[in-house]
Amino acid sequence: MPFRIRVKNAETGASVEMELENDNTVDEVIESAATFWRKDMGAYVVRRGKKVLRGSTSLTEAGIREDDVLELVPDPEGG
Amino acid sequence: MAKPRVIREVRRDPLNRPPPQDISPHPWFTNETKVLYDEALRRGHRLEIYMSSLAEEKMREQSLRAAPRRLEVMGLLLGDVCSWGGRTYSIIRDVGTTDLENSPAKVKFDPSALPRLFNDLDRAGFDYVVVGWYHSHPGHTCFMSRVDLRTQKRAFTQGYHCSVVIDPVSREVRAFKLTGEGYSEVPFALVAPEALRFRRLKPLSSMGTEAETR
């Protein structure tokens, strides 16, 4: 059963509404958002509340539900 | 299995607001930066970056704490993107940071400490935009290194995005923006926190511009 979440881009304030299936993975969500905003995902982390989301876990395993809000946050490196 | 599908985008419009009037230069400006600042004001140019004294104090104190060991520090600049008279500017209202993996020549967030960064973001108390990032160059003066420039090009490419670099040893601070393939210095002004206590005219949720997706 498809469901929807919102993914916010912290560096612009924009957000996208995304339609998903329970067996989609966190990586697929990240890849979709990155493709949409033409971003290099290596420069960001994705959070849900205080938790970093990573990897090939399914959305069910990650506990992501209808109407959840994820956020892309820049992860800079200085030298 | 279907791939995730973007249904629609809601963009954030800049807040329509005049820039702060009660401003001052940073006491750590070099002579060169002070000339840029004075010149911008003398020509009646509005500045592109305003920084609350709260954010400035947090950055300065963090960099000074790590200065005796010559360790770099870093964080995100949280603020608003505003527009007035057809010109866009940013206000840095607060900063977010966490424990770091740092040395005298490199810095990044400690991945295991990201929840603390997220806590800072949630505690900012406003619907922030990450308007840039800051880090320190203890004893190395303020410039954009090759690593800094790569970070800027990967994650901070909007016109309002800046990079603030602080040298707590020589007591310098500068802000930079991308210009073409390189970067250039952009003068900024300090603003007292009370000058930033404005009333929101509309809830943020009603200020966006919706766009159908491809």
List the SSEs and their pairings:
The complex is a heterodimer of chains A (79) and B (214).
Chain A: E1 3-9, E2 15-20, H1 26-37, E3 44-48, E4 51-53, H2 59-62, E5 69-74, E6 77-78
Parallel strand pairs in A: 1-5
Antiparallel strand pairs in A: 1-2, 3-4, 3-5
Chain B: E1 5-12, E2 15-16, E3 23-24, H1 31-42, E4 49-52, H2 53-66, E5 74-84, E6 87-96, E7 100-102, E8 107-109, H3 114-123, E9 129-136, H4 146-155, E10 162-167, E11 172-179, E12 182-185, E13 188-191, E14 208-212
Parallel strand pairs in B: 2-5, 4-6, 4-13, 9-10
Antiparallel strand pairs in B: 1-14, 3-13, 5-6, 5-9, 7-8, 10-11, 11-12
Overview of the molecule:
The complex is a heterodimer of chains A (79) and B (214). Chain A is an alpha+beta fold and 79 residues long. Chain A is built from two helices and six strands, in the order ββαββαββ. Chain A has one domain: Phosphatidylinositol 3-kinase Catalytic Subunit, Chain A, domain 1 (Ubiquitin-like (UB roll)), CATH 3.10.20. In chain A, a hairpin with a 5-residue loop joins β1 and β2. The longest helix of chain A is centred in the middle third of the chain and has 12 residues. Chain A is globular. By secondary structure, chain B is of the alpha/beta class. Chain B has one domain: Cytidine Deaminase, domain 2 (3-Layer(aba) Sandwich). In chain B, the strands form three sheets. In chain B, strands 2, 3, 4, 5, 6, 9, 10, 11, 12 and 13 form a ten-stranded mixed beta sheet that branches. A two-stranded antiparallel sheet of chain B has the order 1-14. Chain B has a two-stranded antiparallel sheet with strand order 7-8. About 5% of the residues of chain B have low confidence. Chains A and B meet through β2, α1, β3 and β6 of A and β1, β5, β8, α3 and β9 of B. β2 of chain A pairs antiparallel with β1 of chain B, so a sheet runs across the interface.
